[in-house]
Write the structure tokens for this entry.
Amino acid sequence: MEIMGRKKPRPRRSFTPEFKAEIVELCQRGDRSVGQIAKDFDLTETAVRDWVKQAEVDAGEREGLTSGEREELARLREDVEILKRATAFFATETR
């Protein structure tokens, strides 16, 4: 997986919420380290740590945006982008 001294980037994968919840549960049990669980399931340790942190936020155990709030923020950003494009379109149309 190395090319001329550099690791080949891992292709972006997506996982179901159920899979993420299973991995988080394994981490919270404490039988194995986060690193070992990541290795066992061919995941990056960073991704697994992020999933654990997000689960803690969603459970109210840690400060931050919940998953629902993150989804709403993403929708609002999309709306802003659509409005920007519409504004630019209508600005050129009225000239």
Q: What stands out?
A: The domain at 13-93 is CATH 1.10.10 (Arc Repressor Mutant, subunit A).
